Amino acid sequence: MESCNCIEPQWPADELLMKYQYISDFFIALAYFSIPLELIYFVKKSAVFPYRWVLVQFGAFIVLCGATHLINLWTFNMHSRTVAVVMTTAKVLTALVSCVTALMLVHIIPDLLSVKTRELFLKNKAAELDREMGLIRTQEETGRHVRMLTHEIRSTLDRHTILKTTLVELGRTLALEECALWMPTRTGLELQLAYTLRHQNPVGFTVPTQLPVINQVFSTNRAVKISPNSPVARLRPVASKYMPGEVVAVRVPLLHLSNFQIYDWPELSTKHYALMVLMLPSDSARKWHVHELELVEVVADQVAVALSHAAILEESMRARDLLMEQNVALDLARREAETAVRARNDFLAVMNHEMGTPMHAIIAVSSLLQETELTPEQRLMVETILKSSNLLATLINDVLDLSRLEDGSLQLDIGTFNLHALFKEVLNLIKPIASVKKLLITLSLAADLPEYAVGDEKRLMQTLLNVVGNAVKFSKDGSISLSAFVAKSESLRDPRVPDFFPVPSDNHFYLRVQVKDSGSGINPQDIPKLFTKFAQGQSLATKNSDGSGLGLAICKRFVNLMEGHIWIESEGLGKGSTAIFAVKLGIPERSNELKLSFVPKGPANHGQTNFLGLKVLVMDDNGVSRSVTKGLLLYLGCDVMTVSSGEECLRVITQEHQVVFMDICMPGVDGYEVAVRIHEKFSKRHERPLIVALTGNTDRVTKEHCLRVGLDGVVLKPVSVDKMRSVLSELLEHRVLFEA
C-alpha cells in the first residue's frame, strides 16, 4: 500500500477555481478601466459626435462594472463588512447606470439608424456624382475630339480633302479598322464607294440605294448599328479568324445647288445623302459607346456643313469665273464701241471740216457772183447753185445732228426766247417757197400762248422748219395751216404711245403745234416708217424724191429730248395729212422784264454795209477757203491779210488788226492755242483784236472750249456775203457773236 502513492494537486479544486476567477476579474477590471480612457480620447478628438453625454453615461457604466470586478477581488478571502457594503453599493450603482443606459439606447438607436441612412444616401450621391463627372469628362473628351476633327475638316474648302481628312481623323480618334464613304451617283439610284481609310477595297464599287439597310440609315439623322454582313459593310478581308467588330453607319446630307440664288438658302434635298460606314477592329471585344456614337453624329453634321461651304465656294468660284469672262467680254465690247464711236466722231469731224470747206467756197463765191451784174438766165443759175448748196449744207448738218443724237452727246441749249417771234420767223422763211407753189399758208397762235418761254430755241425752230417744210414740199396746191396753243392733259394723250404721260405744272407747260396740209396724203401703213432715218413712205418717195429722209427722224429725237411726242395723222392718199407734236417748255419768272430786254431784230441789211479800211486777218490752212473768205471781206471793203498757219498768224498780228477770222481745226498749232497766245501777247483788251472762229461745228462743247480760251465769236460755215455783212455788224456793235 505504501508503494502506491497518489499525487495530490497543489491547489484544491475549489481554490483553483477561485484562483482563476480572481485572475479573470483582475483582467476584466483592467479592460473595463481602459475603455473609458479610449472614449475620453475619442470625445476630445471628435467635434462632430452629437451625443457626448451618452458617452459619459456609457463610460460611467463601464467604470462601475470595472470597479465591481475590482472590489470582487477582496471577496475571495475573508472580508469585512465594509467590503461587502462597498461591493453591494457598486453593484447597485452598476445596475442603476446600466438600466439608464439601456433606456437611453432605445432613443438613440433610431437616430443612429437615420444617420446610417443619410450616410448611405450620401454614398449613393457620391457615386452618382462620380458617374456624372465621368460623363462630363467623356463629353469634354468628345468635345475635344469634335473640335480637333472640325478644325482638321474645316481647314480646307476642297471637297476631296474634306472627305479624306474626315476618314483619317475618325480612324485615328476611334481606333477604327476601316472607315468608308459612299457617295450618290449622278442618277441618285446608286451609292458608289468613293473613299476608304485602309484602301482594302477598290474605289468605284456601287450598291443600289433601295436596299433596306440604306433606307434605314437615310431615314434618321442618328448613327445606326448595321450588320457587318450588309453590302455597304463588306470592306474587310474575307478570310478572318476573328468575329467582325461592330459597324455603324450615318448619313451625311449633301446640298443641291442647281437653283442656288443669292439671299436664298441652298435647297436641301432629302434624296441626296452620302453614307459613312465605321467599323471597330475585329480582334477586340469593343462595343460602340454612346459618346462615340454622338461623336460620329456630330462629325457627320460638321462634314455636311463643310461640304456645303465647299459647294457654295465652288459655285461662287464658277460664278466669279463666268462673271470675269463676261466682264472681259463686256470690256472688250466697250473698248470696241468706244473705238467705233471715236472713229465715227473723227470721221464726222473730218467730213464736217473737209465738206464744210468746199461748201463754204461754193456758197461764198456764188453769193459774190450774185452781187455782180448778171443776165436773168445767169442769175437763175446762180440762185440754183445757192439753193442746192444750202440744201447740201443742211444735209451735212442733219447727219451730224443725228450722229450726236444717237450717241447721246447732243444736249439742249436751254434759254429764254420769244415764242411768238419764233413762229413768225418760221412763217417768213417758208412764205417765199410757198408763194412759188401758190400755196396759202396761215399762222394761228392761241390767246393763252405765252409770249416768252424757256427751252432750246434752235432745236424747236429746226423742228418747225422740218415739219412745215415737209407740208410745203408734198403739197401742189391748196393751203397749209400752222397753229399753236397750250395743250391740256387730255389732248396730249396718244393711244399709240401709252407710256407718254405729260403733267403740266406752274413752272412749265406743253406747247402743241399742228401743221395741216391739203397735200398728197399718206398711206396709214407707211406712217410708222416716216420717223425712220433714210426711209420715206413709198407713195411719197415715188412722187417727190427731194429730201434725205432724215428730217422727221431728227425731229422725233429733238422732240424726245424736249420731253415731248410727235405723230402724223392721215386718212389716206389724196386726203392731206396733219403733223402734230407737243414739247415741254418752261415759263420764265419775270416776263415783264423780258419784254424790255428782247428788242426786235431789224432787217437783214444792217446800218453799216461798208467796212472800208477795217483791218482783218484771216487764218486758214485751206487755200481755197482762205481765198474765198478774203474775197467776201474785200467785197465788203475790208483790208485783208491772210496766213496759212498759227505760227505765221502769231508772227504777223499787230495792234492794227481789228478782227481775226481763224479756222480752229488747224495742223500744228490749232486755233485754240493761237487764241491763248494772242491773249498773252496783247494783255490790254482795247489793244487786242476781236478773235472769231470759223467752224463747221457749233455744238455746246465747241462753244464752251471757245469761251474758255477767250474767243469773241463763233461763226458757222458756210458764209455768204449777206451773212458776213451781218457778222461784222453784230461783232463791231456788240463785241461778241456766238452763232447758234
What would you say this structure looks like, in words?
This protein is α/β, with parallel strands linked by helices. It contains 18 helices and 19 strands. The strands form four sheets. A six-stranded antiparallel beta sheet has the order 3-2-1-6-5-4, with helices on both faces. It has a six-stranded parallel beta sheet with strand order 15-14-16-17-18-19, sandwiched between helices. Strands 8-10-11-13-12 form a five-stranded mixed beta sheet. Helix 16 (671-681) links the parallel strand 16 and strand 17 (690-695). Helix 3 (81-153) packs parallel to helix 6 (290-370). The longest helix has 81 residues, at 290-370. It is elongated and about 200 Å long. The N and C termini lie far apart (187 Å). Mean pLDDT is 76; it is low at 1-8, 257-270, 537-548 and 596-607.
Helicity range: 40-55%
Query: Kindly state the mean pLDDT as a whole number?
Result: 76
Supply the number of helical segments. 18
Sheet-strand content, in percent, reads: 5-15%
Strands of the largest sheet, in order across it? 3-2-1-6-5-4
Distance N terminus to C terminus?
187 Å
Q: What's the alpha carbon Rg, rounded to whole Å?
A: 61 Å
Strand count, sense and barrel status of the largest sheet are: 6 strands, antiparallel
Shape: elongated
Number of strands: 19
Low-confidence stretches: 1-8, 257-270, 537-548, 596-607
Overall SS class: alpha/beta
Main location: endoplasmic reticulum
Family: Belongs to the ethylene receptor family.
Catalytic activity: ATP + protein L-histidine = ADP + protein N-phospho-L-histidine
GO cellular component, one term: endoplasmic reticulum membrane
